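testing teh design pipeline on a random one, pls ignore if ur not involved
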């Protein structure tokens, strides 16, 4: 028996590979359907090549969450390595079928491997917000926490972990059907940079700015408003816009006491919807 708790999440969590390796976080790849091609997110398609192609694409590829069989296979592999406790962490069920598919696989495991305890979590969020929860779960597991304690930690994070993102256009979100409650912004974006976030698991508009620099100032102000005089952990996320997100990092850290941060690039399956050039933050106040 392996006394550690296995932590599993999806490729869309966009956690940097070095952190995945260091914390022993397992991932299951999303699917990208590009014409007749079926690609696996971060397995058979990588970030740079995909973004270069996306800039020239006349129609968007579609994305699909892993199916129950994908999760069942991953759970079986972990059980084969001796894990008896698994926590499975997924993006909002309002935007993807991953949570439901993982829950089906959990039921399959209850029949075939009843001694393996699996908890499936709907983070009600996306990207590195989901990623932060997987990172914190893995850190707790390495420190010896049991499954229920790790689950309690994630439940603390779900209501306080937030995303704010901007892009040159909402075209990609709109074309991909992931626009949520921000539909009304689409027609007015000739010279406006939208700000979007997540509330109750759904994409929502958070305002607009007249320029990228104005959008970054607004994002920094939102983080400051949420964190106040406290401290925060911040992931700076982008799609082919590292220099831009570095500007955002400077602005945020001039306003907020950031105790941990890193820069991460969105996985191709998320870049389909955000579009090249997007930049933003996924953050949470440090509790206690």
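output:
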């Amino acid at each position: 028996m392996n006394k550690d708790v296995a932590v599993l999440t999806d490729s869309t969590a966009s956690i940097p590979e070095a952190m995945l390796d260091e914390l022993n976080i397992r991932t299951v790849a999303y699917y990208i359907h590009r014409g007749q091609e079926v690609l696996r997110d971060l397995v058979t398609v990588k970030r740079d090549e995909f973004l270069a192609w996306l800039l020239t694409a006349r129609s968007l590829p579609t994305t699909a969450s892993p199916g129950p069989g994908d999760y069942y296979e991953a759970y079986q592999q972990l059980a084969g390595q001796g894990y008896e406790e698994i926590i499975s962490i997924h993006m909002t069920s309002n935007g993807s079928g991953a949570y439901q598919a993982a829950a089906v696989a959990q039921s399959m495991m209850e029949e075939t491997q009843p001694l393996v305890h699996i908890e499936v979590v709907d983070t009600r969020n996306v990207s590195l917000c989901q990623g932060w929860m997987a990172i914190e779960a893995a850190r707790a597991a390495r420190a010896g926490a049991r499954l229920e304690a790790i689950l309690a930690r994630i439940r603390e994070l779900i209501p306080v972990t937030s995303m704010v993102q901007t892009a040159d256009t909402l075209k990609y979100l709109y074309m991909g059907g992931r626009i949520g409650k921000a539909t009304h912004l689409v027609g007015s974006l000739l010279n406006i940079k939208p700000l979007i976030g997540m509330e109750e698991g759904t994409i929502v508009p958070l305002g607009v700015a007249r320029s990228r620099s104005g959008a970054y100032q607004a994002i920094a102000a939102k983080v400051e408003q949420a964190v106040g005089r406290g401290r925060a952990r911040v992931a700076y996320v982008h799609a082919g816009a590292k220099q831009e997100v570095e500007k955002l990092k400077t602005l945020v850290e001039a306003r907020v006491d950031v105790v941990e941060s890193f820069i991460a690039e969105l996985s191709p399956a998320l870049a389909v919807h955000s579009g090249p050039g997007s930049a933003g933050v996924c953050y949470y106040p440090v509790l206690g």
